[in-house]
Amino acid sequence: MNTNWAILILAGLFEIGWAIGLKYTDGFSRFWPTVWTVLAIVISVSLLGAAMKSLPVGTAYAVWVGVGIVGTAIFGIVVFDEPANMYRLVCLGLIIAGVIGLKSGIST
């Protein structure tokens, strides 16, 4: 995996962080959770922009969102006791397959 893909995955991890952080901000009424969430947003988008220097925009954005979706959903299942029914897990699997497919189709 080259550096830009690693940066993109890291951007996706920060996306998970800010998506989960939104839950803890309580509508941006809690100071420190809001600060950490906004910081995670800035880092995530900055890393995404850096990765897009050499990766196709559509692929980079789709992978970034895919990592965020899957990670946030899994975090919700594990930490917030959200439902983990078969339909939901299959859909997450399809997203993972799409991300892998997009990564596999790019030689960079």
Automatic annotation (TrEMBL):
Enumerate the Pfam families for this protein: Multi_Drug_Res
Gene Ontology terms, cellular component aspect? plasma membrane
The protein in question is named Guanidinium exporter
Species per Swiss-Prot/TrEMBL record: Nitrosomonas marina
Q: Name one GO biological process term.
A: xenobiotic detoxification by transmembrane export across the plasma membrane
Record family assignment: Belongs to the drug/metabolite transporter (DMT) superfamily. Small multidrug resistance (SMR) (TC 2.A.7.1) family. Gdx/SugE subfamily.
Q: Which UniProt keywords apply?
A: Cell membrane, Membrane, Transmembrane, Transmembrane helix, Transport
List locations, semicolon-separated. Answer: Cell membrane
Which interval of the chain is the signal sequence?
none
Q: Which GO terms describe its molecular function?
A: transmembrane transporter activity
